[in-house]
Amino acid sequence: MSTRNRTPLIEKLLALDSPEIKQNWLDCAKLEIGPEHIEELIALALDEDLNCAPSDSREVWVPVHAWRALAQLHAASAAGPLTKLLRRIEEDDDDWVSEELPGVFGMIGTPAIPVLSEYLRANDHSVYARVAAAHGLQCIGTEHPEARDEVVAVLSGQLAAYKENDPDLNGFLISRLLDLHAVEAALLMKQAFDADCVELFIMGDWEDAQIELGLKSAREKPPRPTPLDLLLRRELASPEPTPLVAEEETRPITRQARRKAEREAAKERARRKDEGGSGK
Question: In 10 A of CB 20, how many CB atoms?
């Protein structure tokens, strides 16, 4: 385990059952974990030795329990430090960070908006770390309706740089704006699509976006299938892995189905704890 001392807090977290992504959360009140533990919880969440502990150990789950506790405590002071974990998404293939930290930021609430906004704007961070920051902002806007307009402004501000952004980032920015039903950003979305600066596999094309915003009731043109569409259609239709279907099969795949497949894939990756660099 980490070289840090086995404090009473660590002992409590080590005694917990192994979690599942977005499930089996600890109960801070029951465990008598309170604001006085925030500083130590931040240190545990960031502890590199714990994050890289063997996958069959209890130590590897301590950071997960720690950031979940910080979320329950609405620990504003944890927002900045926790962004240091976002690099693990690409550097360590850490699905736990990408799946859970956005929701943690959502529970921390509005104090995390400036931190995530700055992180999102920084081009020196990896694309999917910035995608997670955008997701965290959307979670805040959803959980705290009074912050919705501020969050939409931040996401739209980044999307305005669509020509400089990675197409994947643009796709996820639009996806998060759609989650917030940001009709006010529709023209900007269209400009990004028209400039061919959006990766279509993420949420579809401009027609799909219009339908989600309630600006259009149905498609006028058949959707252009992407390789991911073709794969997901077959995977959703069959429990067994199968080759890609022929490109002529153009049955539309919904964004909900796409997200379902993504969630199932995330669960499968989590079960394969012995694989990847995250140790989880």
Answer: 12
Backbone φ and ψ for 86, nearest 5 degrees, come out as -65, -25
Q: 164: closest CA among 134, 197, 135?
A: 197
The residue extents of the domains of the chain are 1-73, 74-271
For the cut 90, the answer to whether the pLDDT of residue 255 exceeds it is no
With 0-12 / 13-18 / 19 or more C-beta atoms within 10 angstroms meaning exposed / middle / buried, residue 6 is: exposed
List C-alpha distances in Å: 176 to 27, 127, 137, 223, 277: 29, 15, 9, 21, 28
Residue 260 clears pLDDT 90, i.e. is over it: no
Quick one: angle between helices 62-72 and 95-108, nearest 10?
A: 20
Q: Considering the chain, what is the average pLDDT of its residues?
A: 86
> Which two three-digit tokens encode residue 18?
């192994």
How many residues comprise the chain?
280
Per-residue pLDDT, 6: 87
Q: Which amino acid is at 34?
A: G
Unique residue bearing structure tokens 């043109």 = 221
Q: Tokens representing 135? A: 């997701």
Most confident listed range (14-28, 102-116, 259-273): 102-116
